[in-house]
Amino acid sequence: MGEILIVAGEASADRYGAALVRRLAEEHGGGVRFWGTGGDAMRDAGVELLGHVRDMGLIGVGEVLSGVRAYHRLLRRLAEEAAARPPAVAVLLDFPDFNLRLAKKLKRLGVKIVYYISPQVWAWRGGRVRVIRKCVDEMLVILPFEEDFYRRRGVRAEFVGHPLLEDFRPAACRAEFDGFLAAEGLEPGRQTVALLPGSRKKEIGYILPALLDAAKLLAGERPVQFLVSAAPTVGREHVESVVRARLGGFDGKGRFRVTGRSSRDLLANADFAMVKSGTSVLEAALCGVPFLVTYKISALSWGIGSLLIRTHSKGLVNLLAGRRLVPELFQGEATPEALARTAREYLDSPEKCAALRGELGKIRTRLGARRASETAAGIIGGYLREAGLCR
After folding, report:
1. Which has the closest alpha carbon to 369: 160, 201, 173, 155?
2. Distance CA 119, CA 114 (A)
3. Model pTM?
4. How many Cα neighbours within 13 Å face the side chain of 272?
5. CATH topology for 179-366?
6. Which residues in the chain come in under a pLDDT of 50?
């Protein structure tokens, strides 16, 4: 039986990894065993987990230092396992601070490495390309411009499509199903703002308080209600504790609901959304909800990262559009007043919302029509055949 090492370190990669594993299992039956790191979705798809994404949510330079022992312990364990039971191929998903270090260790063991979902080296920390060129056998990229970026730098790369597009459809679209808000204890006909603060405890600690303070400003002037996303990698209890602490005795706290439902369902039932920079930005665009992109981190990490960023925008939708399509409020700009002011501009203007929805509708076509997990599985299958594990 052949083995595939697959490593994901956060919530969206867990979903994408699970889809890829299911596809590979369909194509190769019981001839392949999967092990590595991921979340509940990858575990349910049949991956033996040596580490869970809920314990891998280290962000930024300062934050990584605080968990350095656990970080290196997991790195060492994966490398030791790869030496003890060599995989036919290792599939690394995003999570570059961890995965590029792991790639170096695996390369020394002679393991073939496929990197699925590229680090954003085209935006910042471009020096990582040297490590990728040396250690990664093939990059499977999910944004169309990444293929040319890597090929021009001597890296074997193929655009496989974006995995988020596979069967993308909210389960509870407000236009067709008005029971979602009612099930969450909210009023279906009332203006609704979705707050998506991220999928890691530390980023939630930086971002969610600012979102809640902005929401309080809005709630104090209008009868708006709020859906607060609790990602499965964090847990609803943690998010609820932050909300309780921040709202305290606020009179309008009855209009806030924390929910573990999928982020796309929250977005599909909102009139506006405040979204942490990341995968949820693309989900918001595909749902067609007007939104702003935000991000906050420690001052040290932001200061270092800002020196390395080379793109005109930080939000993925704006990068795909080639211009500032949706508002971006990062770090010092992401004050409660500025967040509330931006939301107010859209909540008060149906015309502005309609114009943005029209532009967001064009984003899907920019991402192509390929099915990412199917294409990626076909390429990875080539490495299994090369190892003599399948025909």
Report:
1. 160
2. 13
3. 0.78
4. 27
5. Rossmann fold (3.40.50)
6. 59-63, 307-308, 311
What is the C-alpha to C-alpha distance for residues 139 and 116, in angstroms, rounded to an integer? 6
Determine the Cα–Cα distance for residues 275 and 343; give it in Å rounded to an integer: 11
Give the pLDDT confidence score for residue 44 in this predicted structure.
97
Length of the chain: 391
Q: What whole-number distance in Å separates Cα of residue 219 and Cα of residue 380?
A: 50
- Within this chain, domains 2-166+371-386 and 179-366 share the same CATH topology: yes
Which residues have C-beta within 8 Å of that of residue 55, sequence separation ≥ 6?
70
pLDDT value of position 61: 43
Residue-wise pLDDT tens digits, 176-202: 556 889 999 999 999 999 999 998 888
| Gyration radius of the chain over CA positions | 21
pLDDT (tens digit, 9 = 90+) per residue, 238-285?
A: 999 999 999 998 999 999 999 999 999 999 999 999 999 888 999 999
Pairing state of beta strands 138-141 and 157-159?
Answer: parallel
pLDDT at 59: 44
The Cα 303–Cα 10 span in angstroms is 23
Sheet of 192-196, strand order: 256-259, 225-229, 192-196, 272-276, 291-295, 328-330
Count of CB atoms situated within 10 Å of the CB of 314? 19
Strands (DSSP E) contained in the chain are 2-7, 32-38, 47-52, 89-93, 113-116, 138-141, 157-159, 192-196, 225-229, 256-259, 272-276, 291-295, 328-330
Instruction: Tell me the sheet residues that pair with 116.
Output: 93, 140
Q: In this structure, which CATH number among 3.40.50.9100, 3.90.220.20, 3.10.310.40, 3.40.50.2000 belongs to the domain 2-166+371-386? A: 3.40.50.2000
Domain locations in the chain as residue ranges: 2-166+371-386, 179-366
Contact of 4 with 24, CB cutoff 8 Å: yes
